[in-house]
Amino acid sequence: MMTSPITRAIIDFSAGAIGGTACVVCGQPFDTAKVKMQTFPSMYRNFIHCFVSTGRQVGLRGLYKGTAPALMANISENAVLFVSYSVCQDLVRYVCKMDRGAALSDVQKACAGSFASIFSSMALCPTELVKCRLQAMHEMEASGKIASGQRSTVWTVVKTVLKADGPLGFYQGLTSTVMREIPGYFCFFGGYEFSRSMFAQHMGTDKESIGVLPLMFSGGFGGACLWLVCYPIDCVKSRIQVYSLAGRQQGFMKTFLGIIHNEGFGALYSGLTPTMIRSFPANGALFLAYELSRKMMMEKFGA
User: Could you tell me the pTM of the whole model?
Assistant: First the structure.
């Protein structure tokens, strides 16, 4: 029995949300270190120093700042991403004049993922802005960019954005987000599918039967490919979203060139180490949770 388009969309949405939750649970402390080092690279020598300093200054909970909006961001992003990914695969088949349901190559799936990221960016940007501000609030106060002693909760950040810039304020950094997502998710899905293909070829089986560990490694490999390609863009995005707490920021190109001029090209890669470490457990958990939950729901509701 064929699954109806609506049922398939609901399954993809639910599986994406489950995958997004698994991603945050496994990788939040590393993501916090990434944002802190991107926005205030001069404060930390390396990611170990960032972990230790955060633990001493605000306690272990400091590494989990922004977890609530991170969950909202990843659940909404991945739910929309995987629904759009399924639709964009059909679009790629249409453009390539392929039959509906025909198997796509790894490159074609990468293209579908790249197209899908445009839609997920719209869901991701507002929640990621709140997450990044919460994660770097201590550094903003310590550097004197904002007054100290402010309450740092999701609700206070939301109220600050609405009061200062209105609803559109949540989309500060949208251009950077879209610029990051389009090439990033081409590499993300391309790396994931390529790795699965290599495992399947080596093991003499199909991609659906490679097992848990190869599946998780493939997810981590896809995540590593994404960050290696688009990390400087993500750094600019984080600067715009965090520094906008102290006032409206310049656009992407001016911020990008300002970082290079004032801090050097290396500043664009500050925080890359915890990001690469995070990519394997977090993205491995993302794809494992997505693939297993989707398979279970497809079997239950008919495929």
Answer: 0.84
